[in-house]
Amino acid sequence: MVWRLSTELGEETEEIYEPSKATRLFIVWRKLKKNRLAIVGGGIVLLVVGGALLAPMIAPYDPLQLHLGKERLPPSREFLFGTDNLGRDVFSWIVWGTRTSLYVGLAAVLIEVLVGLGLGMIAGYFGGKLDEILMRITDVVLCLPTILLLIVTLTMFEERGVNVIIMVMGAIGWPFMARVVRSEFLSLRESTYVEAAKSIGATNWRIMLRHILPNMLSTIIVLATMDIPWYIFYEAELTFLGFGDPLTVSWGILMELGRPYLRSAWWITAFPGAVIFLVSLGFNLLGDGLRDALDVKTRV
Amino acid sequence: MVVEHFSTRGRIVGLRTYIIRRLLAIIPTFFLTTMLVFTLINLAPGDPVLVMLAMRGKSGSPEMIEQMKQALGLDKPPHIRYLMWLSAFLRGDLGFSYSTGQPTIKMITDRLWWTLELMLVTEIVSLALGIILGVIAAVKHGSLIDAGSSLSALVGYSIPSFWLGLELLLVFSFLLGWFPTYGAQTSGTTFPSLFDALLDHLRHLVLPVIALTSAWVAYILRLVRSTMLEVLRQDYILTARAKGLKERIVIFKHALRNVLLPLVTYEGYSIGFLLGGAVVIETVFSWPGLGKFAVDVALRRDYPPIMGLTAIIAVMVLLSNLCADIAYAIVDPRIRYD
């Protein structure tokens, strides 16, 4: 864009005007980059994603392959993290396990966001009976310890697999998201811009989706990021307790199998647990960093 | 939970009214929760009588099965059965285990104390550590201690409790032999005195408490630290300092009091959290409490204890949340909108 200006001497000059590059995304990214812990977290997450995508290339063996005669071997050059009680390579299991964990985390968060956002949005915006019903459901789910509710719900299923666990976790996890969304919608619907939109005849759905929702996006992103490690953790805990399918390549299964051999073959439980810890840490650091970066009150 | 139930009237009510209303609000939640669990259990596959017989290694003729069904009331429709269960529950009868035949209530009371003890000790240790470290971190904001505490809180929060428990067990029980490896007491031995028995019990308690504390102390530390930071920014703190009061008095007499407020209400939710943690910690350490019990009966699909345990835990959590809300209302009357 070019402006033509006159100077004092009556001459014409040109100035080039360019719109500012400081878009919201740019600002958020810059703040995030400066947060060292967030970068560490982001690095860990990238490592996990990389492991999941490149698993066939990184893992030296098929995780389910039994190496007969080589059961319970300590870490060595042949088997980096040792072998489990059936002779399976622990390292390969962990690498392939990233796929399972990411699948679990992302799928469950997806359910949580879709259902929680949808219902929370409606309850928060329209209020009234719908809101009351939603709050009742939320109260019910929140009044029992999560793991207990998960266990009890799982007893109702005959089969034990990753998908069942994901569904159950999603079914129990969405009320938490719905509650947050609902309270934000409740307060944001009183905003001036909503009033303005209504006055020019915007429909309720348009207001909800195009006006209120974008303002909530950062909250949802942070919440979803912080919930992913929880789902990974709960899946591991459930499988560790015995509610999983022993043939799934999940980190929790390895911990369950290795538990009787804690003294004789410590590597079977130590490494999967350490990985779960690191992944949790990574997502938590990233989530914390995202929260700070998305907060409009903090400056670069 | 407290502030969200707005009404159009928006006036502050007296404390007694508030308590009564909150108590009344719990009752439908309890019904809904138990109904939900009852429904879930009833949707489970398998005929209960056949399951029960199978667990005890017996089988029966079709007539006998029919008789048992009638005796247990299993031939009636679900809503009737729920009401039957509810009336029995209110009388203190939680049914009998399918596998052991023991009354559920006895199975629960046998184990209740162990879990409560674990939770209580964890609570005390977590509060002590969390408050001390949180206050120090806030007072020395930006220092190495602050960064260190925050980081350890993050670690404690992210670490999987069952992994921590297993590694503690490995290092301190198996390898170093400092602590016993399972249970709440060494079985099969008689102790020369009560003191020795107590000491033995305490040795069993150490590792489970450490494992359970790690996550909870992280929450408390974070809460205390952030609340303290906010409080220290307040004007009345500035006034206190301007008056020339010693810093120690400023912190302990003026600031800490306001930090304890949200902490007290937060504590009400601790039961839910600690019970959840206890489930897996008790399993790892073979601690004879309700957590391990829950896992055992759920894996066995022993429905009466599952139902009874869930109902009791729901009551415990609801009541403790109520206490948290009441405590908050006592301290901060602005909350009592209803």
Q: H/E series of chain B, N to C?
A: HHHHHHHHHHHHH
Beta fraction of chain A: under 5%
Structural class of chain B: mainly alpha
- Average pLDDT figure of chain B: 83
Number of helices of chain B: 13
- How much of the sequence of chain B is in beta strands? under 5%
Total helical segments of chain A: 11
Helix content of chain B: over 70%
Query: How many distinct folded domains of chain A?
Result: 2
Largest interface: A-B, 44 and 47 residues
Tell me, briefly, the overall form of chain A: flat
Oligomeric nature of the chains = heterodimer
What does the main sheet of chain B amount to? none
Distance between the termini of chain A: 29 Å
Structural class label of chain A? mainly alpha
Can you walk through the features of this model?
The complex is a heterodimer of chains A (300) and B (338). Chain A is mainly α. Chain A folds into 2 domains: 1-34, no CATH class; 37-293, MetI-like fold (Orthogonal Bundle), CATH 1.10.3720.10. Chain A is built from 11 helices and 2 strands, in the order E-E-H-H-H-H-H-H-H-H-H-H-H. Chain A has a two-stranded antiparallel ribbon. In chain A, strand 1 and strand 2 form a beta hairpin. Chain A is flat, with a radius of gyration of 25 Å. Chain A starts with a strand and ends in a 6-residue tail after the last helix. In chain A, 43% of the residues are buried. The mean pLDDT of chain A is 87. Chain B is an all-alpha fold. Chain B contains 13 helices and no strands. Chain B is globular, with a radius of gyration of 25 Å. Residues 1-8 of chain B have low confidence and may be disordered.
